[in-house]
Amino acid sequence: MQVSVDIEALNQQIYQDSAFVEQIDIQSSKVIVGQKYMLQRLLLGLLADGHVLLEGLPGLAKTLSIKTLASVIDAQFQRIQFTPDLLPADIIGTMIYNPNKNEFDVRKGPIFSNFILADEINRAPAKVQSALLEAMQERQVTIGTDSFQLKEPFLVLATQNPIEQEGTYPLPEAQVDRFMLKVVVGYPNKAEEREIIRRTVSGETTQKISPVIKPETILNARKLVKKIYMDEKIENYILDIVFASRNPEEYKLAKLKPLISYGGSPRASINLALASRAYAFLNRRGYVIPDDVRNVCNDVMRHRIGVTYEAEAENISQEDIIKEILDTVEVP
To answer: What is the extent of the structural domain holding 298?
Structure first.
């Protein structure tokens, strides 16, 4: 009985404290047409304290979306264009000699911001990728002998172009695994693109965005997200989905065995739970339901399942495998 009372109280608290989500939507729609799904996923990453990897063609408002989100939250934003000649010091900073003091001063790099757009992350060599990913994981940067904590909230949005492979350095699986979500960004529909044309031609794309919340609001919301109730049945459902990607034959999915080279890591289970809670928060609920898990499953799992050559030959993607798992694993 006590549990139900607590859930009811939590539900009311989250309903009140999640009102800012609607304000973010209103302000963002002044600049961004469509791409509601991408904006929602950015908010998911922000609330669940996880980074987002965006895969999409050029010109789909990836940069504009995170810049807009940073403006609405009144947070600092930095865009880093990844190129083959980029050095780790270009991201994290370096030591500069000061002749007046006769000593070295620390010059901090663009990583010291709340929102980092790592544009075309697969264009930079491994050293640069690892420097960024270390900062993402440890939330701190070491320059010389000193370590510096990164600002909170801290969100890295990395983009990569799926069609251009020349002059790129694909992210290794272990590094891709550090992103909570991998979101595939699609084209706008015809009505949305018509609106984009009209706004651009008339100059309405320069509308001023008003900050509606402070970064502290996000940090407080994260504490609430962690309190969202998740029943043991939902936990078991998450584990069944992840374990079905590792041992499909144990879940009546033997036909998937030759198609999967490796399944989801423990980070998949952790991030499914965190993202499901954040999704419940966005829907202004104090508890997680199976639909929350199913809704975020593709974005959490698609970069954590490896497909075999046999699957590629049959044009079977990670999304097809995830759909098969979700259709077969029993829903609580």
So the answer is: 229-328
Q: Over the stretch 73-84, which tens digit does the pLDDT of each residue have? A: 888 888 888 888
The answer to whether the CB of 224 falls within 8 A of the CB of 14 is yes
Domain assignment present for residue 220? The answer is no
| 23 shares its domain with 99 | yes
Q: What is the pLDDT of residue 3?
A: 46
SS3 279: helix
- CA 290-294-297 angle, to 5 degrees, is 135
> Scanning the structure block, which residue is given the tokens 């962690």?
226
pTM, to two decimals: 0.86
Which helix (H) or strand (E) segment is 130 a member of? Answer: helix 126-138
Residues 177 and 301 in one domain: no
Same domain for 168 and 282? no
Max Cα–Cα distance, the chain, nearest Å: 72
Q: Which of 114, 141, 316, 292 is nearest to 219 (CA)?
A: 114
pLDDT tens across 304-327, in order? 998 889 888 888 889 999 999 999
**Angle formed by the axes of helices 36-47 and 62-72, nearest 10°:** 50
| Number of domains composing the chain | 2
146 and 246 together in one domain: no
Q: How far apart are CA 185 and CA 174, in angstroms?
A: 22
Q: Is the pLDDT of residue 5 over 50?
A: no
